[in-house]
Amino acid sequence: MFLKSAENVLDILFLWEKEKAEELGLNEISQLTGINKSTVYKILQSLKNRNVIEQNESTKKYKLGVGLIQLSSHVLKNLDLREIAHPLLKQLAYMCENTVTLGIKSGKNLIFIDRIDGRDNVRFFCDIGKVTPFNGGAAAKALLAHLKEDEIKEIIDDMEHQKFTHKTKDRDEIIKEIEIIRRDGYSISDEEVDIGVLAIGAPIFDYTGAAIGGVAIAGIKQTFTQESFRINKKLLLEYSSMISKRMGYFENK
């Protein structure tokens, strides 16, 4: 039933493109899709409430709305980030010999959109497509710390504490850590998501100066000597800065 309902919504949304029409009436949509008029009406009202569909008050016909533009611009922005960052992430993974991940904000969580495995090819939590709360690792914390204050407050207020290990930070600890991350320019996740794994994270900014992503280097904790940590941190900050610059960010802007 759920799958059929989803197919009905998609059939309706793609109808304007299929028919090359600017506006379509309720009866037209029902006839062209084969979906009964009552169901079409309910779907249109739901889409209209989300600005995905608009209704012409004069003709009472429907057309695609600005909500689709908002969705598409969000997708395009994130795809551009991954496309621009990927070659640099590959270089970074090669140079640091550890796994490198890239995540973006998805609602009140972080979702990983890219991952380059390191020398040891160790399987961590952060696979592509994985969603994690903002207390879930270095990339998430680096991004969280550099979001706008109202965004941070909203995320923190609604944060459901997911404890990955006994070292996972709770809400109060995350709040305290935000200022440290801002001061240092990077975050650390010390076995907070996977036991035996250490990660360093840094934010990525766009042309407006807004934080749009978090990149992290993760590896087996035992391999992170004081010197290797220093080198990895230096590489991470250099490459996250390069990605930000390619996204149009200038620090003195």
Automatic annotation (TrEMBL):
Keyword set includes Ion transport: no
Domain of life: Bacteria
InterPro entries assigned to the protein according to its UniProt record, in alphabetical order: HTH_MetabolicPath_Reg, Tscrpt_reg_IclR_C, Tscrpt_reg_IclR_N
Secretion signal span: none
PANTHER family (UniProt xref): HELIX-TURN-HELIX TRANSCRIPTIONAL REGULATOR, ICLR FAMILY, HTH-TYPE TRANSCRIPTIONAL REPRESSOR ALLR
IclR-ED domain segment(s): 67-249
Keywords tagged on the record: DNA-binding
Protein's UniProt keywords contain DNA-binding: yes
Taxon lineage: Bacteria, Bacillati, Bacillota, Tissierellia, Tissierellales
Domain HTH iclR-type: 3-66
Protein name, per record: IclR family transcriptional regulator
Pfam families per record: HTH_IclR, IclR_C
